[in-house]
Amino acid sequence: MKFILLFLLPFFSLYAKDYKLELGLGIASLYYPNYIGSKSTQVLTLPIPYLRYTGKYFKIDEDGLSGKLFGINGLRLDLSVSGSLPANSDSVGVRQGMPDLDLTGEIGFKLVYNLFEQGVSKLELELPLRAVLSTDFSNLKYRGVITNPQLRYSLNYSEFEWTFKTAAYFANKDYHSYYYEVKDKYVTPSRAAYEASGGFSGYRGRVGMTYKKESWWFGAFVSYFDIKNAVYKDSPLVETHSAIYSGVSLAYIFYTK
Hints:
Blueprint lengths: L1 H13 L5 E14 L7 E14 L3 E4 L2 E4 L2 E3 L2 E10 L18 E16 L2 E15 L4 E8 L2 E8 L2 E12 L1 H8 L18 E15 L2 E11 L15 E15 L1
Antiparallel strand pairs: 1-2, 1-14, 2-3, 3-4, 5-6, 6-7, 7-8, 8-9, 8-10, 9-11, 10-11, 11-12, 12-13, 13-14
């Protein structure tokens, strides 16, 4: 996602007379399940660009891209961007013989209301709604709609910033079908047919931390998902009712403006 945003920078800067920009290069390592509910996990380590941009209307940081479309009395409308990494079904026992899971991108909007702000602390309520698209780099397919209303508490003290998030996830039938439906042609003696429905997708708690000192930046996070009450919990593709994502990254900042 940061590589994509890097290519968008000239567009943002073209219309911004006053902005702040930091560029750097680093390395990141991410631990994640192939999909929520899968026992199969991966570790991905790769070089990444460090990118922080603050303009009048757009901001890019470790949380991604946000764009202030309007703001009034603590309420604003931002862009909302997310996604998930691809997974090879042959590496996931319960999905063997089924189509691979492609790279997905989620884009939409979110309402953000500032509930509390004092000194170094801030509490916000976020109400996002995103459309989900998948790609195997040869075509693009619609995969549904997802929303995750969440509370976000941030504590910004000196070189450290801590963020704490708690969210409830909901998605429509199209989204759940992409990950958890088993059509008749994929039924096996150990994998029954399953038709997904829309509704509750689970809870997530997330703790994140960033540290910046002179030209160095460090970030880390841990996310925990609980799906034991999700509408798709009985899918034969669900092997566990919890999931953990975690990641660390380190970057050197070589340009500031």
